[in-house]
């Protein structure tokens, strides 16, 4: 409650600042303003995306849906990508505030730098939204994401389903976890551990090698998985935390003629991940309807930029401070060969980009219209 009052004050202060700071400003390549002025003049919203390599989603989905939502609301915005550079991340935040941002939305690269940015913004009366990744100990005004433990549960259940389909006996399961500095990676792991640990404990499955991939670096994931497979050539299933890590494992499995025999999981429903599923090399992915996440975050940001105090549907406890962060959490969906078509029907990927070359026949087989 106390926190809520603080953010209201911050938002009001931010609005006052924004009204003067934003006047007459224009023209960064990534920023847009609408032709028709909104009824209540709002401040400017700054968004910092993390990188463009750890997952295709940030540039192909998040940027697009956020742009659409801000444009529809008639607010000024500036979306930039830190390209996995923590120093650049902080510089971008400073510049956004200097250039009149009255709300900041960040996808942190780690909680430490995220926290620095949030605190600096707060000191300037600029409220922040943790977008997709919670900044531990950060104290953002809001957090918008998916139910990330559920994402991990779906991955664990997916791997069990695919191993069962393959009638695997006492399969050795390897883990390629996400970045150790991403709170989401911790939540995904707690989700799949919840499903797989009982299998290890009962002796149905055998726990194989496990590695966390720094910064979700796909290239490093390939090297790590190569080492894992050398150490344990009988790996029979791979819990990979996203499609990029999954593809890194699949590339190594292909070199060893094991693709399609060893199920691999993923996340993000990227074109590459979905094509790997169509080819039979990837067992499943988790579709997160990013449009819903972007719309929810944009709605909060627009309200804050107008000096309002929006309410969030739920809250999440920051494990470091014990404080409740007002939150909006969306529902993820498991995707297998048979429902790849759902992702296309939802408009997240197009048939044209998915069903290229040899995938055309697979698309027909999977009922993709
Ligand atoms: C996101 C995933 C993404 C990963 C790597 C996570 O925080 O939730 O969707 O694949 O970061 O960018």
UniProtKB/TrEMBL annotation:
It comes from Nonomuraea turkmeniaca. Residues 45-309 form the Periplasmic binding protein domain. InterPro entries: Bact_Solute-Bind_Prot2, Peripla_BP_I, SBP_2_dom. Keywords: Signal. It is found in: Cell envelope. Its main location: other. GO terms for cellular component: outer membrane-bounded periplasmic space. GO terms for molecular function: carbohydrate binding. Residues 1-21 form the signal peptide. This is Sugar ABC transporter substrate-binding protein. It comes from the Bacteria. Coiled coil: none annotated.
């Amino acid at each position: 409650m106390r926190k809520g009052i603080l953010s209201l004050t911050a938002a009001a202060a931010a609005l006052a600042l924004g009204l003067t700071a934003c006047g007459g400003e224009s023209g960064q390549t990534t920023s847009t303003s609408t032709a028709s002025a909104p009824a209540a003049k709002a401040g400017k919203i700054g968004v910092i995306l993390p990188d463009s390599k750890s997952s295709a989603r940030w540039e192909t989905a998040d940027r697009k849906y956020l742009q659409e939502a801000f444009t529809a609301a008639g607010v000024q915005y500036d979306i930039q990508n830190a390209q996995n550079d923590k120093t650049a991340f902080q510089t971008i935040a400073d510049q956004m505030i200097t250039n009149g941002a009255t709300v900041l939305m960040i996808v942190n690269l780690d909680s430490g730098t995220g926290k620095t940015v949030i605190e600096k913004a707060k000191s300037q009366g600029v409220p922040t939204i943790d977008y997709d990744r919670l900044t531990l100990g950060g104290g953002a005004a809001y957090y918008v994401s998916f139910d990330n433990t559920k994402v991990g549960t779906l991955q664990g259940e997916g791997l069990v389903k695919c191993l069962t389909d393959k009638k695997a006996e006492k399969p050795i399961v390897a883990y390629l976890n996400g970045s150790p500095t991403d709170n989401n990676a911790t939540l995904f792991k707690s989700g799949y551990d919840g499903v797989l640990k009982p299998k290890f404990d009962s002796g149905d499955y055998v726990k194989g090698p496990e590695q966390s991939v720094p910064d979700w670096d796909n290239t490093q994931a390939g090297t790590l998985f190569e080492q894992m497979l050398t150490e344990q050539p009988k790996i029979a299933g791979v819990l990979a935390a996203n499609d990029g890590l999954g593809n890194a494992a699949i590339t190594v499995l292909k070199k060893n003629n094991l693709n399609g025999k060893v199920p691999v999981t993923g996340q993000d429903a990227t074109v590459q991940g979905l094509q790997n599923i169509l080819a039979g090399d990837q067992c499943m992915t988790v579709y997160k309807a990013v449009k819903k996440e972007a719309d929810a975050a944009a709605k909060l940001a627009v309200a804050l930029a107008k000096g309002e105090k929006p309410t969030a549907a739920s809250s999440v406890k920051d494990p470091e401070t014990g404080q409740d962060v007002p939150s909006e959490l969306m529902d993820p969906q498991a995707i297998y060969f048979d429902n790849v078509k759902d992702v296309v029907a939802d408009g997240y990927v197009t048939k044209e980009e998915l069903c290229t070359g040899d995938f055309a026949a697979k698309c027909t087989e999977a009922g993709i219209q």
